[in-house]
Amino acid sequence: MTDTSQIKEHMEVIGADGVHVGTVDRVDGHRIKLTKKDSGMGSHEGHHHYISTGLVAGVEGDKVRLSANGDVAVAFEEEEDG
């Protein structure tokens, strides 16, 4: 289990494949809240998404690396209401 206290605001969240998934807004319980600017397009645009901290493989410098590839991690994103 990764120490989520190392995850800080503005860190880049990347998939295991190095693909950009989002930018940390803050850690909210067992989820990482991503900034709105990484919210996607269409009906996903303009609100926060969350990634489970269970997907975090590690923190490397200013990056949060996930255990899943970027496209898979995005599929696991949750909406604001959880």
From TrEMBL:
Pfam families the record matches: DUF2171 (PF09939)
Protein name (record)? DUF2171 domain-containing protein
Naturally occurring in which organism (per UniProt): Allosphingosinicella indica
